[in-house]
Design brief:
alpha/beta; seven-stranded parallel beta sheet; three-stranded mixed beta sheet; globular
Length: 352
């Protein structure tokens, strides 16, 4: 199965498209992308490899069991990396059911289809096969001022999004312990980088600074997140997929804790510098009513990944953030194309 492709579900999204490009261009790996192309999935993010002989795209939904079974039977992949997910907390507050459908039902369908496929493979192919499920640190809940999430931290999801991902994680674990499916799970911290849909904090704030619009910050801006460059995350996913021990969980973090207010201030300063502004964009900061159930702090202990698999993040946050901001400033047409009318920078997740 060494020449067999890897199937990336959700591969037209922010993280999935970065991973697909890394695998094709750096690892010379055959890749099949399966994506429903919802608002956050966009083929523009895959233009760099759209004509590459190692890449192919299949439009479709992971909830479509017949489609998934057909892909497995026809393409004989050596593994699946599951990145198909609804991922925005605010949207999960406005409509939890869609998150259950994709993140829970869709993952269960993938697991079941993979198990049916895997058990019929010869022993050598079974031994090589991997199902890598990509999850989030939000399943662990909220930290106090100190401490870090590790792989044995108890699950305490506080948003509908986090609850849906926690449920999916548990099903992945169950398919390993019940059926022997060789699964791996990763839980990552907040990603940033080029090609991220503009509803997320960093690209949203870049856009608003450029347009001289108010910069809404939840609460007092003291909520803390650990930030991980998407290229580092995708490098870690390759490491786990190729070297990880089936049944294990690996946390992936960027060792870059920042408050939301610090992030927004940094974005203001960098945009002002790159655009030679003669004003201070920090004056646009506006504090708004906090998100319901807003977790105070996330921070990742990724020592298992670094110790056992010898992975370390390469990007320093300050460098990565400036490169990211510069990319958005130079690629405004990409942002315009993905803003198809379903999202215009308005606040989501206000339901009480």
């Amino acid at each position: 199965m060494t020449d067999s492709p890897i199937l990336i579900t959700g591969g037209a999204g922010f993280i999935g498209s970065c991973l697909a490009k890394q695998l094709v261009l750096t690892a010379a790996q055959n890749v099949i992308v399966l994506d429903k192309l919802t608002y956050a999935g966009n083929l523009d993010s895959l233009q760099e490899i759209e004509n590459h002989e190692l890449y192919s795209f299949i439009p479709g939904d992971i909830c479509d069991s017949d489609l998934v079974a057909d892909i497995l039977a026809q393409h004989n992949p050596r593994g699946i990396i599951n990145l198909a997910a609804e991922s925005h907390v605010d949207r999960s507050i406005d409509g939890p059911a869609e998150f259950v459908q994709t993140n829970v039902v869709g993952t269960c369908n993938l697991l079941d289809s993979c198990f049916q496929y895997w058990r019929d493979q010869p022993a050598e192919a079974q031994a090589q096969f991997r199902f890598l499920h990509v999850s989030t640190d939000e399943v662990y809940g909220s930290l106090g001022p100190t401490g870090l999430f590790c792989e044995t931290t108890a699950y305490q999801p506080n948003s509908p999004y986090a609850a849906s991902k926690a449920a999916a994680d548990h099903f992945v674990r169950a398919y390993h312990h019940t059926f022997g499916l060789p699964v791996l799970t990763t839980n990552c911290s907040n990603n940033y980088g080029p090609f991220q849909f503009p509803e997320k904090l960093i690209p949203l704030m870049i856009s608003k600074v450029v347009q001289r619009e108010p910069l809404p910050i939840y609460g007092d801006g003291s909520n803390v997140r650990d930030w991980l460059h998407v290229a580092d995350h995708c490098g870690a996913l390759q490491t786990v997929f190729n070297q990880g021990e089936p049944g294990r969980v690996y946390n992936i973090g960027g060792n870059s804790e920042r408050t939301n207010l610090e992030i927004v201030h940094a974005i203001c300063d960098i945009v002002d510098k790159l655009n030679n502004h003669d004003h201070c964009s920090r004056e646009l900061v506006t504090f708004v009513t906090d998100r319901p159930g807003h977790d105070q702090r996330y921070a990742i202990d990724c020592s298992r990944l670094s110790t056992e698999l010898n992975w370390q993040p390469k990007f320093k946050f300050e460098t990565g953030l400036e490169q990211t901001i510069d990319w958005y400033l130079q690629n405004s047409q990409w942002t315009k194309r993905v803003m198809d009318g379903s999202y215009r920078g308005q606040r989501l997740g206000k339901q009480q």
